[in-house]
């Protein structure tokens, strides 16, 4: 079940909210735990057992780490922590990367080992990182152990961020699990944020995704330069509004339930360098790798060679986290190389450039990266990049490219503006000029109703409603 679906909007969510708010406060974590299991079981009932196993593993290992640390037995605490890490990584590796490993072994050795063809558990990359962060934070002393298994289970399976993030570190919501106080203002903000995300996903991402689907299957020999750039621009906007829209919905749902999740996107397409882009894109993932990989490796506190090594490791893992395919690994390596070059060479020059030039630099490199990311077949991605730069195309522009530009001109303008903070600044100015609470409430109410009605009308008729990050 996805947030942008009619069953979720008209069945699951209303029922959960009713059950949650009629339940006594001390039982609300239990309501979240069991209703979140229902949410996950809607699409994959078998893998609920896997999630419960992961929950039990990290709950018990967290208790063990806490117990040994209290007794001063640090070696045993390290063993318990290592055990939790091995189990979590093994589960993720088995379900997500088994066939990738077998395929590469077959290719290298000429063997014919049969593929397992396992269905990837939805959200396993997200909730595995979350549960690992809990045990690590207990060991570091950055979070208190959770002794109530239902409350811990509510954290692991909390449906707003269960299947697509943002990746919520336990230490950021530990207090909220026990002491949150829901109020009308927070709930109202949650509804507003959810509807903003729903509009991003349904009205923007889905519509521009149709253009990418059309162009991506066009043979390279039939592309023009303009068509290739138009296609990858469509993909760039689709994945941004798709994923950031889903994150907005998750944050909104969290607010409805009294939780405050950290932001996951901050207008990444406004960036003027790749370094800035990755501070603004999928912030929770970047924060996780910084806190649990980069800094423990030494971060910036070591020599030049080790800094480069640390960045290379993080970006290899970032690419590999996204999927069991060489294109994702090469995507991570691609950005890792650029980030190393920026850190030690390029940033001092970029900072001297006019803003529009540094912005173009960042966008071109990000768009090339999306071409690598978009095609599971790495060679197809390379050929598509060649087409973007006029290699093996049928020319710069043709009638089909002009037709697509004209047909999608309005939505492209909307997408460009929507990917900046301009709409937010305009809205804040208007609210500032008309700051009466009643006026603001009316405007927000009209926005919420309008987005909801139009989105539902679209969903009733639409058969195209993918979510790109489900496969990760």
Automatic annotation (TrEMBL):
Its membrane topology: Multi-pass membrane protein
One annotated Gene Ontology cellular component of this protein: plasma membrane
Single GO molecular function: acyltransferase activity
Membrane-spanning intervals of the chain: 6-23, 30-57, 77-95, 107-129, 149-170, 223-241, 324-341, 353-373, 401-420, 441-460
InterPro entries according to UniProt: Ac/AlaTfrase_AlgI/DltB (IPR024194), AlgI (IPR028362), MB_O-acyltransferase (IPR051085), MBOAT_fam (IPR004299)
GO BP annotations listed: alginic acid biosynthetic process
Keywords, in A-Z order: Acyltransferase, Cell membrane, Membrane, Transferase, Transmembrane, Transmembrane helix
Compartments it resides in: Cell membrane
Annotated family: Belongs to the membrane-bound acyltransferase family.
Protein name: Membrane bound O-acyl transferase MBOAT family protein
Organism: Lachnoclostridium phytofermentans (strain ATCC 700394 / DSM 18823 / ISDg)
């Amino acid at each position: 079940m996805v947030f942008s679906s009619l069953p979720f909007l008209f069945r699951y969510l209303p029922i959960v909210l009713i059950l949650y708010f009629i339940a006594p406060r001390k039982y609300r974590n239990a309501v979240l735990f069991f209703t979140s299991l229902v949410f996950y079981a809607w699409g994959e009932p078998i893998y609920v057992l896997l999630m419960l196993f992961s929950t039990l593993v990290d709950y018990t290992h967290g208790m063990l780490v806490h117990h040994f640390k209290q007794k001063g037995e640090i070696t045993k605490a390290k063993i318990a922590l290592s055990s939790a890490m091995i189990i979590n990584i093994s589960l993720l590796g088995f379900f997500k990367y088994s066939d990738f490993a077998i395929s590469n072994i077959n290719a290298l050795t000429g063997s014919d080992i049969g593929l397992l063809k396992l269905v990837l558990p939805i959200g396993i990359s997200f909730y595995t990182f979350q549960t690992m962060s809990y045990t690590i934070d207990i060991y570091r002393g950055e979070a208190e152990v959770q002794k109530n298994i239902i409350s811990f289970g509510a954290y692991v399976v909390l449906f707003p961020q269960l299947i697509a993030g943002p990746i919520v570190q336990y230490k950021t919501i530990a207090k909220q699990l026990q002491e949150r106080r829901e109020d009308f203002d927070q709930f109202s903000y949650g509804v507003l944020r959810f509807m903003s995300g729903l509009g991003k996903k349904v009205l923007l991402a889905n519509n521009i995704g149709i253009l990418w689907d059309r162009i991506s299957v066009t043979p390279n020999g039939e592309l023009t330069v303009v068509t290739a750039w138009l296609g990858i621009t469509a993909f760039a906007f689709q994945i941004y509004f798709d994923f950031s829209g889903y994150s907005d919905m998750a944050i909104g749902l969290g607010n409805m339930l009294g939780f405050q999740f950290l932001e996951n996107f901050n207008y990444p397409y406004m960036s003027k360098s790749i370094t800035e882009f990755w501070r603004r894109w999928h912030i929770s993932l970047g924060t996780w790798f910084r806190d649990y990989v980069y800094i423990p490796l030494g971060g910036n506190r070591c020599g030049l060679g080790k800094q480069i090594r640390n960045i290379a490791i993080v970006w290899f893992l970032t690419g590999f986290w996204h999927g069991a395919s060489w294109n994702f690994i090469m995507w991570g390596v691609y950005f890792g190389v650029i980030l190393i070059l920026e850190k030690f060479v390029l940033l001092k020059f970029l900072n001297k450039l006019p803003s529009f030039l540094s912005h173009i630099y960042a966008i071109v490199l990000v768009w090339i990266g999306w071409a690598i990311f978009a095609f599971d077949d790495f060679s197809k991605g390379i050929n598509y990049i060649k087409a973007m730069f006029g290699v093996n195309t049928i020319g710069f522009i043709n009638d089909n490219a002009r037709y697509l530009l004209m047909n999608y001109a309005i939505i492209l303008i909307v997408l460009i503006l929507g990917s900046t903070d301009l709409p937010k600044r305009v809205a804040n100015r208007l609210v500032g000029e008309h700051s009466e609470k009643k006026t603001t409430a009316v405007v927000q109410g009209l926005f919420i109703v309008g987005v909801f009605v139009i989105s539902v009308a679209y969903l009733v008729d639409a058969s195209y409603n993918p979510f790109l990050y489900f496969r990760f």
